[in-house]
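Good morning N.,

You mentioned wanting to compare the apo and holo forms, so I went ahead and generated the holo version with zinc ion. This is what I fed in:
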Amino acid sequence: MICKECYSDKPRVTPLLKPEDCLKNHTQYICSTCGRCICIESDEKRDVYRWNFPFKTLEIAKLYLKTAEVICQDVCGIYEIIGKNDRISYKIFHTEEDLENYLSKNKDKKCEDKKPVYISEQYVESPNAQIRKLSDEEIKDYLREQNQFKI
Ligand SMILES: [Zn+2]
Ligand SMILES: [Zn+2]
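and this is what came out, ligand included:
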């Protein structure tokens, strides 16, 4: 079942890479519905979050969509970006203006119809969600669950 809060049916799928490092060192959005942790750490100098980076697939971009919405306090769209050699990636933007801005600074990138390939119907704030670092104990439990379920 797809989690209504964080849009994934895999409650321990994230962090995808080096999960232990991410959970230890980065602030997480902890889904109050399924418990999934989503990295919401920002690079302070540049104000760049994980969700600002390009994703290889739409599915992976969806895993981070909630953190974009939480930061923007609004719905955000996932756009298909065509780069050099027609390489496709997916990026999350708050508004179409943000997309235009990005495209104007990255002349080698294109977005065909400039409409999101995915967007939530509305932004729903989840009052019980927490944004914080996990305790050592929580990290241990989470990693164990990640290994157990391979989900
Ligand atoms: Zn992280
Ligand atoms: Zn969830």
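The chain is about 30% helix and 20% strand.

Happy to go through it together on a call whenever suits you.

Best,
F.
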